[in-house]
Design a protein that fits this description.
The chain is of the alpha/beta class and about 325 residues long. Helix content is about 50%, strand content about 10%.
Length: about 325
């Protein structure tokens, strides 16, 4: 019986693919094999075969903004309306994390209003770096303040800066850079005061927070010594990291999962598939090898997501 809730599930809307094909494939050539053949029905079929009741869709790397605000606004609207139609056409199967034309602040504020008020989305999905701007940049604070006002769920997916592609011949950049860019984004949000100033946003980070579990003590030691940050983080940076949510795609293995469990509580861990780039069964099988109790597995695969994203309950009814 389908019961899992997939919080890391990607879509490739046709208009997005049409507009940005070259950039998508340039970001990771292996994406071509998985994005070109994607359809909503294929996603539903895979979900049925994997026991996934509902998937919250999002746009993967490289995102939608490539320096042209007007074009990014159009792509965001196309993607979000496509995702909303998927929710209507396959009732109960999909939720969505809407994409924003960020770092275009005015465009993002307009899209937040449309996405939540008209399309009834479940949250917002953002990539970790926007050109060369990380999400803790002060210019983006109006976006965070509005999302905080709405008590939004914000999901982050990593991408790769142009400077970090092709560093190791034969190794695709996402394998190495995704974990580190996730860690940079978390550090940026902490150092920029976003976590402190926007306590009502619930943040989800992909792949177990990337390299954060290895670097958290080092990063926290540095942040905790910054006088201007001390009032913003009364429990220290480690306290901030502990409150974040993490999907376990790529870390459903005893070694990284053990580190993640030391960083945060079981209630902050979520199932994700990373479909269509990974088969859902990869993470499912990994979970079964972690030595967890049935209650802990149920929490990761379903219960934590329902508590975090309450709008899903009505869609699944």
């Amino acid at each position: 019986m389908a019961h899992r809730i997939d919080t890391h599930h990607h879509i490739t809307p046709p208009k997005y693919l049409e507009r940005e094909m070259d950039r998508i494939i340039a970001a990771a050539p292996h994406y071509k094999q998985t994005t070109l053949g994607w359809t909503p029905q294929k996603a539903v079929d895979v979900m049925d075969a994997s026991g996934i009741e509902t998937a919250i869709t999002s746009i993967s790397a490289p995102g939608i903004w490539f320096g042209d605000d007007k074009k990014a606004r159009g792509v965001a609207r196309d993607c979000n309306e496509f995702a909303a139609r998927m929710m209507q056409d396959h009732k109960g199967c999909f939720g969505t994390f809407a994409v924003l034309p960020i770092p275009d602040v005015d465009g993002s504020l307009a899209e937040i209003a449309y996405a939540f008020d008209e399309l009834k989305v479940d949250g917002i999905g953002i990539v970790t770096v926007l050109g060369t701007m990380y999400p803790g940049d002060t210019a983006l604070m109006p976006v965070w303040e509005e999302l905080n006002r709405r008590k939004a769920v914000v999901y982050f997916h990593p991408t790769v800066q142009d400077c970090c592609t092709g560093l190791i011949p034969g190794i695709v950049a996402p394998m190495m850079e995704f974990p580190f860019d996730t860690t940079r984004a978390i550090t940026s949000l902490a150092a920029g005061g976003v976590f402190a100033h926007c306590p009502d946003i619930r943040f989800i980070f992909s792949h177990g927070g990337g390299a954060l579990t290895a670097l958290a003590p080092r990063i926290a030691s540095h942040l905790d010594r910054q006088a201007h940050l001390k009032p913003l983080m009364p429990d220290g940076a480690m306290g901030v990291f502990r409150k974040l949510y993490y999907d376990i795609v790529g870390v459903a293995h005893p070694m990284p999962f053990g580190a993640l469990r030391q960083l945060t509580e079981m209630s902050h861990l979520l199932y994700g598939s990373d479909y269509p780039f990974w088969a859902p069964q990869v993470t499912i099988d990994g979970i079964m090898r972690l030595g967890l109790t049935a209650k802990e597995i149920a929490a990761i695969e379903r219960d934590n997501a329902l508590a975090l994203v309450p709008t899903l309950k009505a869609k699944m009814a």
